[in-house]
């Protein structure tokens, strides 16, 4: 960029002076020196600086005005570490055998979650939607259940992790003299491979969402904006002011020495 300005300038300037004014445009300083350069190059640089400077300004203002959203835990390992540090609570369904399966799991993170649930007696009645909703609305909480159940009951109101604690097998009971077992297996495999099951679930959820009038906005835990969250912005502002004052001081000293 400096080479282009120096080559297309109608007047010859030193590289240091030209660099100072080119970067100064980015900081909304005077463009007097660049007027002597090619108008197309100067105009494109001014336009680019406009979008860059105001883009950074918009990001900074949005950071200061929009509340921070707490990122949900996405994996079992993250949930285990959060529960160990006391930052998160996790509940299981009352009367289910999920807790026993977790305590006997091969994964240490799953066993850790199970021990915390058993120790603190964190259980929720899954027959009551309001109890689950109240528990999750407290923030820093999670429940253990199947994805399909959460989607059917709450659509997209809460974040549903793609990670799995464990998987369980589902079988269809038939008579021992049933003569079409292989054919039934083939049909089930085809249904699973073609995605018919997933499509049926999605269609049902879509119809249920329309009937319920759900807007699709997830219930995201809002994090309170604290002073440490603003350290970066204040450091950026203070550093800029310090540099500006330093340069201004050197300009005054230089002006007095050259008189």
TrEMBL record:
It is a multi-pass membrane protein. Keywords: Cell membrane, Glycoprotein, Membrane, Receptor, Transmembrane, Transmembrane helix. SUPFAM superfamilies: Periplasmic binding protein-like II. This is Ionotropic receptor. PANTHER family: IONOTROPIC RECEPTOR 20A-RELATED, IONOTROPIC RECEPTOR 60A. GO terms for cellular component: plasma membrane. It comes from Oedothorax gibbosus. The chain crosses the membrane at residues 45-66, 230-254. The keyword Glycoprotein applies. InterPro entries: Insect_Ionotropic_Sensory_Rcpt. It is found in: Cell membrane. The lineage of its organism: Eukaryota, Metazoa, Ecdysozoa, Arthropoda, Chelicerata. Its main location: membrane. It comes from the Eukaryota.
């Amino acid at each position: 960029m400096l080479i282009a300005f120096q080559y297309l300038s109608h007047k010859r300037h030193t590289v240091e002076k030209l660099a100072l004014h080119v970067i100064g445009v980015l900081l909304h300083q005077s463009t007097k020196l660049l007027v002597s350069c090619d108008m197309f190059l100067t105009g494109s640089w001014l336009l680019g600086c406009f979008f860059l400077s105001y883009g950074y300004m918009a990001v900074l203002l949005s950071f200061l005005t929009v509340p921070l959203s707490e990122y949900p835990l996405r994996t079992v390992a993250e949930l285990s570490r959060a529960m160990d540090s006391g930052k998160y609570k996790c509940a299981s369904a009352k009367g289910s055998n999920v807790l026993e399966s977790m305590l006997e799991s091969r994964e240490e993170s799953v066993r850790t979650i199970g021990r915390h649930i058993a120790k603190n007696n964190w259980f929720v009645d899954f027959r009551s939607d309001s109890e689950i909703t109240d528990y999750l609305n407290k923030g820093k909480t999670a429940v253990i259940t199947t994805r399909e159940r959460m989607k059917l009951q709450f659509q997209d109101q809460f974040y549903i992790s793609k990670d799995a604690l464990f998987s369980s097998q589902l079988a269809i009971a038939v008579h021992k003299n049933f003569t079409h077992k292989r054919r039934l297996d083939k049909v089930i495999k085809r249904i699973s491979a073609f995605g018919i099951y997933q499509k049926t679930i999605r269609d049902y959820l879509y119809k249920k969402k329309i009937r319920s009038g759900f807007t699709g906005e997830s219930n995201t835990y809002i994090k309170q904006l604290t002073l440490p969250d603003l350290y970066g912005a204040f450091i950026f502002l203070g550093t800029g002011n310090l540099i500006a004052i330093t340069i201004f001081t050197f300009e005054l000293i230089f002006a007095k020495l050259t008189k």
